């Protein structure tokens, strides 16, 4: 292979089919994102989607190779077939029906935009129904990007994050989506970006307040330090490191850890249906979960006082 291959973005119908099973049963349904967040590389890719038949070929390649669980991958599942007027609901539902007809054990989506969910709440309920959440599988999961609770930071680096809603509505959008996820047994795995250029203590406090309001909803919360990615709008900026962290950042990380520990046992129970591990491994994992409660508590306490964990 040449070390660097240069080329243009291929149209969705030219994305080649997989030759075998993929890690985690990931099946690509589209590439690119139109929201244009300043720190994100998919924002630079033209948005395009693969035809249903090609997606089904990849699903079949996975199932034939022994994979049982399928994860439909794009930057936003509800953007499949997106046109200027918004998501194409019938295309999304047809895709889910076609995948379901292949009879995988479970179906999940990799990424979902909260703004899309907020505008299409009934679509999420319909997807749940076709997939059989609560009957054929106990939950569905999706990676979502909360990124920040500060509308000032969102306006600076992610002005399209809430569209077509206003950016000022973001905290409310997040809360309403979490309530819907709980109602429909969807597990959100959420990312937060800490230390975006220009972030102040008051912005971090807003994110902490938002996370605090979500504590009772099951999920995972992943606070990530801002890292520069070449070719993004923030490509030339300095990444965020431990030395840059304010006491407010540690308080937020501590709260996220507390949130994750609170839900870890339930998540383990939910994810068991996707795991091939035997009884012994599950027992060991349960033990690790219990140990984590004890061992990590002192770090949580330190961070919630605004101190680094060690
Ligand atoms: S919405 Fe997500 S995928 Fe799209 S540009 Fe923003 S961070 Fe990237």
Account of the 3D structure:
The chain has about 300 residues and is an alpha/beta fold. It has a single domain, classed as tm_1862 like domain (pyruvate-formate lyase- activating enzyme). It contains 9 helices and 8 strands. The strands form 3 sheets. It has a 3-stranded parallel beta sheet with strand order 1-4-5, with helices on one face. The protein has a 3-stranded parallel beta sheet with strand order 6-7-8. A two-stranded antiparallel ribbon has the order 2-3. Helix 1 packs parallel to helix 2, helix 2 runs parallel beside helix 4 and helix 8 packs antiparallel against helix 9. The relative contact order is 0.10. The model has no long low-confidence stretch (mean pLDDT about 95). The chain binds iron/sulfur cluster.
Key traits:
globular, three-stranded parallel sheet, alpha/beta, binds iron/sulfur cluster, pyruvate-formate lyase- activating enzyme, 310 residues, 8 strands
Outline the secondary-structure elements:
Layout: E1 26-28, E2 30-31, E3 48-49, H1 52-64, E4 69-73, H2 89-101, E5 106-109, H3 114-119, H4 121-131, E6 140-147, H5 151-157, H6 170-184, E7 186-194, H7 201-212, E8 220-225, H8 247-271, H9 279-304
Parallel strand pairs: 1-4, 4-5, 6-7, 7-8
Antiparallel strand pairs: 2-3
Helix pairs in contact: 1-2, 2-4, 7-8, 8-9
The structure holds iron/sulfur cluster.
Iron/sulfur cluster binds at residues 33, 35-37, 40, 42-43, 75, 113, 145, 158.
């Amino acid at each position: 292979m040449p070390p660097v291959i240069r080329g243009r973005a291929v149209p969705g119908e030219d994305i080649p089919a997989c030759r075998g099973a993929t890690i985690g049963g990931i099946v690509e349904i589209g590439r690119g994102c139109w929201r244009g967040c300043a720190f994100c590389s998919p924002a630079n890719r033209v948005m395009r989607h693969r035809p249903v038949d090609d997606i089904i070929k990849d699903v079949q390649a996975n199932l034939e190779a022994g994979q049982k669980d399928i994860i439909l991958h794009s930057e936003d599942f509800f953007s499949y077939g997106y046109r200027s007027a918004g998501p194409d609901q019938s295309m999304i539902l047809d895709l889910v029906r076609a995948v379901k007809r292949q009879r995988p054990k479970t179906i999940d989506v990799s990424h979902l935009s909260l703004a899309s969910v907020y505008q299409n709440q009934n679509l999420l309920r319909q997807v749940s129904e076709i997939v059989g959440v609560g009957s054929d599988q106990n939950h569905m999961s999706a990676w979502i990007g909360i990124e920040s609770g500060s509308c000032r930071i969102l306006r600076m680096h992610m002005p399209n994050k809430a569209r077509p809603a206003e950016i000022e509505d973001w905290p409310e959008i997040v809360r309403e989506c979490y309530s819907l996820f709980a109602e429909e047994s969807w597990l959100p795995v959420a990312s937060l970006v800490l230390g975006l250029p220009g972030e102040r203590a008051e912005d971090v406090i807003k994110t902490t307040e938002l996370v605090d309001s979500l504590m009772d909803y099951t999920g995972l919360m992943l606070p990530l330090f801002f890292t520069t990615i070449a070719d993004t709008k923030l490509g030339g900026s300095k990444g965020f490191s431990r030395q840059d962290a304010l006491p407010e950042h540690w308080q937020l990380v501590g709260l996220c850890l507390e949130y994750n520990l609170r839900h870890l046992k339930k998540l383990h129970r939910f994810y068991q249906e996707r795991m091939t591990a035997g009884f012994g491994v599950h027992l060991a994992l349960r033990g690790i979960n219990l140990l984590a409660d004890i061992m990590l508590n002192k770090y949580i306490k330190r961070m919630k006082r605004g101190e680094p964990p060690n």
